[in-house]
């Protein structure tokens, strides 16, 4: 029990968030201390409700707390075109009877860190608003964060604009605070998640797992695949689960230390994560940026994760 890695997952479910939570839920290497939610793929109310539904459906009993309902400075941008009006593309998951914690996400984070003998790993897989506000509010607890393993950013390309990835685009000011925080960061951005493809026949395999979670995750991946048809792949990219996989098994990704700056003002490049390559620019790297993944091991881990449910 004690050698499990204690984590807090900060999310905005979201289809791939749902898969990430379920991938983490039964894993023997990690101990989920809390799930916190932040506005992103959908409004805070919807993503919070989705987190509760997914966790209850999976029988994952952990504290859930709601965080911020909008980015630090900008208006909220949601992604209904990918995740649907409810944020889960109409997934047939019953309403939850679980209640969220009555304290705010960043206060729950603080409580957990204060009470823990061990450092906690943060896994943010939505916009970084909660994490940045936590760092602002509780700077004295920064040293109790083991590492921030995040899904976000892209050194090359984007999915919200041609240069920005969604999570960073939504709240670039928050990302800027996190990347300047000096907390160790592993960045799983599009550079690696666009290599984390689950192909159609693998989705079929997940769907045929003999439990309700395999079926749900298989259908979720099929729904995500519809969005990726125009990317020319038969299957889907899986973004958020890469951050989970990276904590479960760090050797699954290949990273490079880079100084990453967040573009806050660009007319065309707002929210870009600028990687400073080269001897002249790459001073004091602030993130280990993932560029490659052992795709087959990743998919295998995903399949095994879903088989652990009954
Ligand atoms: Ca997400």
Q: Main β-sheet: number of strands, strand sense, barrel status?
A: 9 strands, mixed
Distance between the first and last residues' Cα: 21 Å
Total number of helical segments? 12
Average pLDDT works out at: 96
The dominant shape is: globular
Report the strand count: 11
> Using only CA atoms, what is the Rg?
18 Å
Percent strand:
15-25%
Helix content: 25-40%
Ranges where pLDDT stays below 50 over 5 or more residues in a row are none
Q: Spell out the helices and strands N to C.
A: EHEHEHHEHEHHEHEHHEHEEEH
Strand order of the largest sheet: 3-2-1-4-5-6-11-9-10
**Structural class based on helices, strands and sheet pairing:** alpha/beta
Write up what this structure looks like.
Helix content is 36%, strand content 20%. The mean pLDDT is 96. The protein has 310 residues and is an alpha/beta fold. The protein has helices at 15-25, 44-57, 80-83, 105-115, 129-137, 166-170, 172-179, 190-193, 200-207, 212-228, 240-248, 295-307; strands spanning 5-11, 30-37, 64-66, 120-124, 145-151, 185-188, 197-199, 235-237, 253-262, 273-276, 287-293. The longest helix is centred in the C-terminal third of the chain and has 17 residues, at 212-228. Helix 1 packs antiparallel against helix 10. The chain is built from 12 helices and 11 strands. Strands 3-2-1-4-5-6-11-9-10 form a 9-stranded mixed beta sheet, sandwiched between helices. Strands 7-8 form a two-stranded antiparallel ribbon. Bound molecules: calcium ion. Calcium ion (CA) is lined by residues 11-12, 14, 17, 40-41, 125-126, 240. Calcium ion is lined by residues 11-12, 14, 17, 40-41, 125-126, 240.
